[in-house]
Amino acid sequence: MNGHAPNNDMLSAYVDGVLSPDAERSMEQHLVECEACAQALEAERQFVAQLDRLAEVTPPDDFVNAVMGRVAQHPVHQPGNAIPWRAAMRYGVAAAVVLAVLLGGGVTWVLGTGTLQNAEPGALVAVGISRTVGLATVAFTGLSELLGNAFVLLEQAAKMVWQLTKLTARSGWMVQLTLLLLTVSLNYAFTRMVLNYQRRH
Amino acid sequence: MSATDQEIVEAVLAGEQHRYAELVQRYQGKIVSYVMRMMNNYDDAVDLSQEVFLKAYTALDSYRPQYPFTAWLFRIARNASIDELRRRRLTTVSLDAPVSTEEGEMHRDVESDAPGPESTYLEDEARSTVEQAISELPDKYREPLVLRHAAEMSYEEISEALELPLGTVKTRIFRAREALRSNLERLEALQMQAASGAEGS
Ligand SMILES: [Zn+2]
């Protein structure tokens, strides 16, 4: 003990066994030498024991049966239903982010190969949206064709999207938002760059 | 050897609804004791404890097995107790609010049947001085103290359940005991006074 007088906090902590090993050892050494502290400790022990009797509230005998009777009125948990909606939401949002980033790349590509001269930002966005829809249609048609003769490819693509989704779901909303903003600004910057290049030639 | 909490939860989630009785059996005493110290009324505590176990059953698939089951269960018990106390406080307030009539405002001539701590104490002579002293503690001290002694939780479990750092939990429990000691002394002095007053008249 540093000097004398272990305070009530330390006695409380000692009785509950939550002192650090060092503090506990010096407390024990001190208790051997100091009658006053030994008495204070005994008082603390009795006080804590008195408090522990608060736990002696006995539930009625039929408590378990009463609860189980009401539980029986609820559906039995099914192993398949184990995915809570929160997790499902998280994956849904993550999947949307991944698709937006992947499609964003597509938009950039479409805009970049287009012949938009002196376009205003508003026009770029409009064209971007309409071309994304177009691209999605083309992609869907293409995928249906692939489905016929190259199912493996689709599976690989789905696996990749799933892996990215899992990764994004674990990363939290800050990262997801950053990814989205990054995609938007990169798309915008790259499109401007391509347009400027086309104007000069 | 009996099954761990996690094993039982797994079995219940896999469709063995009746296994839930083991968890109710295991924790009924702690939950009823805890809720009893929060509500200060045995019948209310038993009713609310049933609700707690029912809520825990329906939400069982959101329990994460890497955390102690008790901490999760007590978080449900705690929220239920706080909601119930808040609901009662609101009922009391709305009864106290003046009623507007054509002759102007008047006060309702109704007494709330939820008694304040003072009248509960006077009505229920069997209640010990310790329980009275605990009910007078501020929430932030009463809660960890009640979890420690009525629910017999470890410091780590309390820290999980209240989402507080371990150090804060220790400090609050020690402060609570300190405050309790002085509350007790004051109440005992009051009782002595009342006793000698009764003799005198
Ligand atoms: Zn000493």
Can you give a write-up of this model?
The complex is a heterodimer of chains A (201) and B (201). By secondary structure, chain A is mainly alpha-helical. Chain A folds into two domains: 8-55, no CATH class; 84-200, no CATH class. Chain A has helices at residues 8-15, 21-33, 35-52, 63-71, 85-113, 121-149, 151-171, 173-200. In chain A, 12% of the residues are buried. The mean pLDDT of chain A is 77. Chain B is mainly alpha-helical. Chain B has one domain: Rna Polymerase Sigma Factor, Chain: A (Orthogonal Bundle). Chain B is 71% helix and 3% strand. Chain B contains nine helices and two strands. Chain B has helices at 5-13, 20-39, 42-58, 69-96, 117-123, 129-135, 139-149, 155-162, 166-200, and strands spanning 99-101, 104-106. Chain B has a two-stranded antiparallel ribbon with strand order 1-2. In chain B, a hairpin with a 2-residue loop joins β1 and β2 (104-106). Chain B is elongated. In chain B, 30% of the residues are buried. The A-B interface holds A 8-9, 12-13, 16, 18, 47-48, 50-52, 54-60, 63-64, 66-68, 70-72, 74, 76-79, 81-82, 84, 86 and B 12-15, 17-18, 20-21, 24-25, 28-30, 32-33, 36-37, 42, 45-46, 49-50, 53-54, 57-58, 60-62, 130-131, 134, 145-146, 148-152, 155, 170-171, 173-174, 177-178, 180-181. The structure holds zinc ion. Zinc ion binds at residues 4, 30, 34, 36-37 of chain A.
Q: Any idea what the shape of chain A is? A: elongated
How is the biggest beta sheet of chain A arranged? none
In round numbers, the mean pLDDT of chain B is 81
Q: Provide the gyration radius of chain B in Å.
A: 21 Å
Q: What's the multimeric state?
A: heterodimer
Question: Keywords, please?
Answer:
heterodimer; A: 201 residues; mainly alpha; 2 domains; 8 helices; B: 201 residues; Rna Polymerase Sigma Factor, Chain: A; two-stranded antiparallel sheet; 9 helices; 71% helix; elongated; binds zinc ion
